[in-house]
Give the backbone structure.
Amino acid sequence: MELTRNITLGIYLPGDTVIHRLDPRTKIIAGAILLCLLFLIKTYTAYAVFAAFTLALILTTRIPLKFTLNGLKPMLPVLAIMWLFQLFLQKPPGANVIFSFRFLEATDAGLHMGTLMAIRVILLLLITTTLTLTTSMVALTDGMEALLRPFRKIGVPSQELAMTMVIALRFVPTLAEEMEKIIKAQSARGVAFDRGNFILRTAKVFPVFLPLFINAFKRAEELIVAMEARSYTGGAGRTKMNGLRMNRLDAAAFAALLLFSAVMLILILSVLPSL
Amino acid sequence: MPINLAGVSYTYQAGTPFEKEVLFDISLNIADGEFLGIIGPTQAGKTTLAQHCNALLIPKKGKVLVDGLNTADKKTDLVKVRQKVGYVFQNPEHQLFKTTVGEDIAFGPANQKCSKTEIERRIREAMELVGLDYYQFFCRDVFALSGGQKRRAAIAGVLACRPKVLVLDDVTAGLDPRGRETILAVIRNLHREKKITIIFISSSMDEVARLAERVVVLHRGRIVLEGGVRTVFAQVDRLKAIGLEPPQITEIMLHLNQKGIAVPLDALNLDEALEAVIAALKRAGAGAPWS
């Protein structure tokens, strides 16, 4: 019974590869651009090119591919359900029915859309996981804060926002670990989590989630006190000892990204979406 | 109901960059009615070892037999195993979730599909065993209890499942002295009166010295010392070598030895120590040094 092992989101693996050394701002912007591209593309060819790029990216980080891919595991059931929904419920006019099961009818359009959606979500997860695996939390906050700074003038609390996001990410593994402990404690009192039908299993989440939420609130309160005890007063007047600095590496990364985006845009525009 | 561990090894997060081996080839037999203490410095693998005893963890290598049932066997009903071996976590917040103490204790027996009257009986029994007054605490909000009371409520929640073996994972950590003494008295009573096998993990050598019959010392995932509580704690040098502080009584006896008063090191409590010192002084033929 190990939950922690399947959660890669929010974990940072230190390393010394090109990706690790990039300025966090570069990585965040690049990630955002890649995600935008991901939502624009609609053909299998474009997805194949994008997947190849993602794979290359993951390999450059020298993090075992298996580890990154394991992070997808908990998402697979959700993806499968979403895929089935698309498959059976998408019925645009002119779609052909591939097969039917009682009142359910699967259309070719549904199959197409479901598959594209699944690929899209998988790639999205891989990109974000790669970002968090190669960027420490400190660097991520610094990056986000720097990127949000221009919006301070219109009243966006950039520092606080960045801090909130980073704390949320930071506590994902912690909460997973805690959940594992609670599941164990309740198993020791005779809950069989892997038994019973859907409704019975759903009822079994309460003995886990209630203590988990209560602990999360307690933890948040303790964290607030600990931060304030060390004179945290929010973003106002904070300075940095090591400011962020972009260098040639970042320029090269942006050049590569630009090139890739251009290729993707050509692919998107030249091949008319089949649907 | 014996528990046998044979060549048990365990690795956390196997197959990831965080892979960590915590147990190496552990073999251990826990007999019926025994009071076993497990000690060791932090990160020694105490909790990991204990969680093998009720199939919360399944060994990666070797096997664990609980009352003859192999926990790694797919056909073994793990719920039954966990019913026989209760496990109390260090942090009661990990298991208390109902609003009142009574409801929370009822959770275990309800999972065992006990009848209403049976559940009621077990709640009363469990609360009595841990010294929580039924009328006073049954309707009390669990989150309004003190640390020691919460822990007793958590133990009651496990006892209501009627386990034959009870694993206690550092249950006195972070309690005030009075709460600690109450818990220790409860545990001693469970062992003596109810004949429950106790597996007691603790970071306090004094507690283990006072309660346990046999002690296993873990260090970096291996058993480095094992034996009767007296023999283990008398080996002060070996305990110190792995970073464990022997019980205070043993320390005092050690100091007396260094001062030239030959006393045995295996005293476990004040009374025994006193007798040993008096005997040593008599042997020396001298009057008491303080007279």
